[in-house]
Amino acid sequence: MSAEFALFGVLLAPVLQALFVLALPKPPGLRDVLHIGFALATAICAGRLVNAVANGETARIALAQPLPNVDLAFVVEPLGALVAATIAGLGFLHAVHSAGLVRAMQEKSPARLLAFMALAIGATMAVAFSANLFTLFVAYQALILAVFPLVAHRGDEEARRASRTFLATLLTASMGLFLPAMIWTYAIAGALDFRPGGVLDGRVDTLTANILLVLFVLGIAMAATPPLHRWLPDSSRAPDAALVTIQGLAILPAGGIGLIKVAAFVFGPALETARIAAYGLIGLVGVGMCAAALIALSRKDLRERLAYSCMAQSMAVVIGALVALPVGLFAAALQIVALACSATTLTMAIGTTAAITGRRTVADYAGLGRVMPWTFAGFALASASMIGMPPFSGAWAKLWLITAAAGAGLVWAAVLVGVAAVLTFAHLAPLAANTLAGKAPTDAFKRPDGASILLAAPVILSAAATLWLLVLANRLSLFLAPIWSGPQ
After folding, report:
1. Mean of pLDDT values over 111-139
2. Where are the alpha helices (DSSP H) in 244-363?
3. Do 350 and 303 meet the contact criterion of CB atoms below 8 Å apart?
């Protein structure tokens, strides 16, 4: 399989997945086979692209040229390949899990739900492989429109309110902040292509650089940067299967990818010119990260608690991107991977628990690990990674992030990252421990047969993925080096 064919595959397979699921909703068995099969195809193509980057191969697909020197194009590069492979691999596990979950939860319009989840994954792949700011902007809009029906899926007043908040926040930020920043960048540089070293380096004055950085960071509201973060906790009322997509596989990873691309490929060394804005945003995000982790402690509904916890983890990506030293960019990339692994595992575990036991609150989780050992083993491992406990993925991401902040002279930012980790421990560690150590409930299951393998296996396999950065961290630093140093 050529790299170009694999790039076509990773972009088109989710779209075909959605079309076939909608066209063939019955029998459910055929629908589920198509749903899982296309997700596997996406994962295979994404894996091929990682191998292509490792072997020095490249591929570029240009679909149109709407402006001089501006293509609607996709390109294979290390960051996109890494994140795409992570999301596609986890997406395959989620496809298996969601096939079982929509049945267990008796979701209405399951084909529509599965189809828009697939489209969201496809749009995230487009974000990951975007070759320039214009393509990133188009893919960003496609992702917003793909996820909006997931938030609104239940159709009740709460879902409609959440979907309005989601759509208004993300579209307003992208159209009102990101779009003007992109146009301004084009006016300065005459091009929008992502390039190691940054298209703005040597072309922008201090005032312009600071304003542009604020516009870009706030315009990419998918990263949940304050004050444009309300969409995330509001979207926690989406169906459980959709929450995996929103928090673990699509929206938050896409926001992180966008910010890293802007920091590394648009600003580059010019980020030093925007130091005032960068430091101000780091302070805002650092305080917001601690506040989100503290708010999570007060939330009794597990979906809301996890939404705020994921928000705090996403803000860590923003800090890494803004520190922007090679170690900062590396930390941000690792944090995206760690967040995807842990958030996907936790949201799948919460969905499985709700489907089998009907329990959603912190108090109701006591002892459930004794009757659902596999699901809550995965829950505990993912919680440890989210907290940042060695040897899990989250530990290495946070270690590099603290190192990057301290290395840049921002000791206060490193302290904020540490405080957020402690607060994350406070809202996840006792919960996970209580599920395993508490007294087993005698009436836990709504269904006498408990969780099926479709619901339990993806959780534990996804949790196992939280260990892989321990083995591959050094290789990943070499793999991602072209982000900040250009092709070797």
Report:
1. 94
2. 251-261, 275-298, 302-323, 326-357
3. yes
